[in-house]
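look at this record:
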Amino acid sequence: MKMETLSLDYDTETAFASLFSALASVKTSADATATAESSRKLIESKLGGPAGVVGALIPLVWLETKSPHEEINSETSPSSAVQGDDALAILTYLVETHPSFYMSATAQAVRHDAEAHLNEQSSKNRNITDALLTSMAKLIIAPNSESEVGISTDAHAALLSLCKYNSHEKDLAKRLFDILICLWDYLQRQQQRESSTAQMRIADLMIDVCLLGDNEIEAALHGPQCIMVKLLQLALDYPNNDPLLQMSALDQIERLAVNDSKYPMSTKRAEFLLSSDVLRKGLFVLVGVGDEEFKVEEENQEMDPINGGAALRLLTAICRVGVLSMISQSSQISEETWKKFETLLQMFQRAIRNFHPKGELERLSYIHAASSLVASCSIVASSTESSTLAKDILNSMWEDTTVLHEWLSLHS
């Protein structure tokens, strides 16, 4: 259902214009603050409260901002100049000064309006500014209590819908990720416990956007301090003083290995998982296996007691991506990536050999990992004539009595 633009009477339109004019001085002038609050109360009385005010402003947010030099004739209502980022400025003021009345209502309304245009041609006419993206992204990290989680959920859904159904704006994901990087850096500077939850909300949105396609994953990997690097640093830091946050970050990266009818594996996403040197190095450090290429010190070569299992599961998921990409007729993975994947298989075998499961969860992870390695090597060896490494790994697996004993005994 599409949210219609309300037809406002002259007094309400004038109050909107007066409120916007007062915003420039509201932080420094008591008179401006009084004018803004007087205008707000009038608008609320005319529109039936905060919900009515939000309903009137949201359709205006999508419009182009009027130029301050553009003339307004006598037949044009005063509120015609309050649209685009100007309407957003009013909405932001209301959310910041009266969050209990406006924050949740605004998040719900933007989500509703974004999702209402999912398949409409009119979505191409919406003006999605950086100010709008920033305001919605701030709502993702603003809530701190359990009762306000719905605000973050609505803001997340709205931003994801904008990225998904505005593919004609090629740089939309890049613009959003640049904003998320600024918010991520801000949270890190706070050095507060609550910041970790907010960072995972940012990571959750970033991964959801990356699953949309190659353009989005490329945007997440753009630049040396890109948003994906932020997540990798959190997931692969060793030793780590916040293992629970690290576990959550590893889980987010594992979501990139999904391959189903809703989110089929894309070439760029597979390339990243199979060939990222940073990802490979970090995961093998966590599972206690040195990577000779990176010269990992011997003293670090023991499995992380808390997140070693999570890292092993992620490696298992990456092996599955390699297998599916190998057998896919439409796969366009480069030869260089396949060579790196074969090296990953070799290191993965060493990790399994060094892993001695304790407890039910570790036993299940071990069975899954060993089975995936055998399947991966079998398919790679049979699908690539030049893949002597995969054949050697497969043969050594069958000859590795330690791995076979634990694998088969756990299976039984």
Confidence is low (pLDDT under 50) at residues 71-79, 293-300. Residues 50 and 101 are 6 Å apart (CA to CA). The longest helix spans residues 360-383.
